[in-house]
Design goal:
Layout lengths: L1 H8 L5 H6 L1 H15 L2 E7 L6 H9 L17 E8 L2 E7 L9 H13 L2 E6 L5 H10 L5 E6 L7 H14 L5 E5 L7 E6 L5 E6 L6 H63 L12 H13 L6 H19 L2 H12 L6 H29 L8 H12 L2 H17 L5
Parallel strand pairs: 1-3, 1-4, 4-5, 5-6
Antiparallel strand pairs: 2-3, 7-8
Length: 417
């Protein structure tokens, strides 16, 4: 529970990440409450009309969960206290069917409930279909208690049940599941009664549900693992949430870094376009790049001083200069000029040089971003290899085109003095 509380109370997690994982954080709060109340959650999961609700009613011994011959009777996850064992409260939870027409939201709710459950009753009305096996593969794990419940066993002959059980065992031999049979809502029996006069008439007799095997399996699991089930599943859920938080933080940083880089690229591009400098010096017009690297460092949890940012900028630029060599100016200026097709010749030249400035800063920003994302490290192969991989990965011409379009639009709209 401590890991869940630390996750829930961690102030270092950005508000944007919490907003994106709103449903997961609600689940964290529910798990904390579940652990405090020492609850075991048993979730019935499966397709519509497999008898999930009637199965839980049979376990309860009362009709609490709504049942209907129509699909989609269960609209949301419905919990109900069952009984207690070893000071732990047992809660039965019904879920919507996983194959309802236009029921994606309810299916997502059902999957989430199954993932958080301590015991899953995967309810079947017959042999496993391909879609059911795919669902079972997602839910079952070595740490999860899953009971594969062949419900409606009264509809089959003993030979048919044996064949279905054999098929189920073959299809699930790679999974940690236990197979049990049940008849949660058996068909009434028709009995022929002979009268004293020799005539016969039919009577219908209701049959009690048969869930004794299922109950015994549940109690066996709880006796063996009851005290550790909740803690184990809570720990697994906390680990999964931590992974999602980390992934979202990485994505947020990447998005923010891209915005920062493009802002400084445009500033460099416009500055160079309005105040042209020799093409060979574009890599070393570093004032804007230093400011960009300082802002990127803060995004990744650092706060580089101006001198440290200048050193990092110089290292990156030196690697780019080595990579580009003498062909930097001629080749890139030619590429940039090709991207511009309208405007006066002076505007053409200014836009081309501005696009080169934009591209140079884009390279510096992307290399710095990767350096910070790797924990302020160049990696095992050093700065040259990192710079080379970034240069190869980026589409130079599309970046120059984007730069030219933006700079040209701004130059055209620039007020005349």
């Amino acid at each position: 529970m401590n890991s869940l509380r630390q996750l829930f109370d961690d102030d270092s997690i950005p508000a944007a990440v919490r907003a994106q994982l709103k449903n997961q954080y609600a689940s964290v709060q529910q798990l904390i409450e579940k652990l405090e109340k020492q609850q075991i959650h048993i979730v019935a999961y499966g397709k519509v009309s497999t008898g999930k609700s009637s199965l839980l009613n049979a376990l309860m011994g009362s009709h609490h969960f709504a049942i209907s011959p129509l699909h989609g009777e269960t609209k949301n996850n419905q919990p109900l206290d069952w009984q207690s064992m070893q000071q732990q409260s047992i809660v039965l939870i019904d879920t919507p069917g996983t194959d309802e027409f236009d029921g994606e939201v309810r299916e997502k709710m059902a999957k989430q409930a199954a993932q958080q459950a301590d015991i899953v009753l995967f309810v079947l009305a017959g042999d496993l279909s391909e879609s059911e096996l795919n669902q079972l593969n997602l839910i079952a794990s070595p740490e999860k208690a899953v009971l594969l419940v062949l419900n409606k066993s009264d509809l089959y002959s003993p030979d048919e049940i044996q064949r279905i059980q054999q098929s189920l065992n073959e299809k699930t031999q790679h999974l940690n599941v236990r197979l049990v049979t049940a008849a949660s809502d058996p068909r009434p029996q028709v009995i022929l009664i002979q009268q004293p006069d020799g005539s016969e008439h039919q009577e219908t007799k209701n049959v009690d549900p048969d869930v004794i095997n299922l109950k015994n399996e549940i109690w066996h699991i709880l006796e063996q693992e009851g005290k550790t089930l909740s803690a184990l599943n809570a720990s697994l859920f906390a680990t999964d949430i931590n992974r999602q938080v980390a992934e979202n933080i990485v994505q947020l940083r990447q998005n923010a870094a891209t915005k920062i880089i493009k802002t400084y690229c445009l500033a460099k591009g416009i500055g160079v376009a309005c105040n042209p400098i020799p093409v060979a010096d574009l890599l070393f017009a570093a004032g804007i790049d230093v400011a960009m690297i300082r802002q990127l460092s803060r995004l990744y949890g650092l706060n580089l001083s101006k001198s440290d940012a200048a050193k990092l900028t110089a290292t990156i630029m030196a690697q780019l200069a080595l990579l580009m060599g003498a062909v930097w100016g001629v080749n890139l200026l030619s590429s940039a000029l090709k991207t511009v097709s309208v405007g006066l010749s002076t505007t053409l030249t200014a836009t081309a040089q501005g696009a080169l400035g934009y591209y140079a800063t884009y390279l510096v920003g992307k290399i710095a971003q990767q350096y910070f994302a790797q924990g302020n490290s160049w990696g095992d192969d050093g700065p040259k290899a990192l710079a080379q991989s970034i240069v190869k990965k980026l589409d130079r011409n599309s970046i120059l085109q984007e730069a030219s379009d933006q700079i040209m639009a701004l130059l055209k709209n620039k007020p005349k003095k």
